Amino acid sequence: MKARPDERDPSAFSPRGRRWQREALTDEGSEAQAYDQLTQSHGPHPSASQTPSPPRGEGKRAWPRRLAYTGAGALAVAAAATALLWYAATLPPLDLAAASDRSTVVLDREGKLLRPFVTADGRWKLPVGAADVDPRYLSMLKAYEDKRFDSHAGIDPQGMLRAAGQMLANGRIVSGG
């Protein structure tokens, strides 16, 4: 006795039901004749030349995993930023006494330099303001070091992002921000 279609193993049938048709034809003749008849009437199965697709449901659970990885990465970045800010808050204030140490200078009545003296560590540290420096030197220094120096408050966000991207791409520090 022949089994009904609903009692058959569903994994044994193709999505288009051609196996059922083939079984119906094999009752009347040989299996080779049935196959020839099917391929002549319907052509070869379209997926015969393509790579097989993954089983159902296999790609559906990828987005929760990606979301979890993205969330974990964001949490790690936030934790690192918090730790850095906490560490910076625990640091003592900078000792700027060495920066304020200047060479002793002797000036004439008009404020022109007569004789400078070296500091205790043997260096020349003359007091100079931006007005005392050649403007061409300052513009050359800004063009070489930081083109956007006048447009940010000391930390260039665009430069920091560029430097972070270069560090991630190269695995080492390539430039500063």
Describe this structure in words.
The chain has 177 residues and is mostly helical. The protein is built from 6 helices and 2 strands; from the N terminus they run ααααββαα. The protein has helices spanning 18-26, 31-42, 62-90, 97-100, 135-145, 157-170; strands at 105-107, 113-116. It has a two-stranded antiparallel sheet with strand order 1-2. Strand 1 (105-107) and strand 2 (113-116) form a beta hairpin. Helix 1 crosses helix 2. The longest helix is centred in the middle third of the chain and has 29 residues, at 62-90. The protein is elongated, with a radius of gyration of 40 Å.
Outline the fold blueprint:
Blueprint: H1 18-26, H2 31-42, H3 62-90, H4 97-100, E1 105-107, E2 113-116, H5 135-145, H6 157-170
Antiparallel strand pairs: 1-2
Helix pairs in contact: 1-2
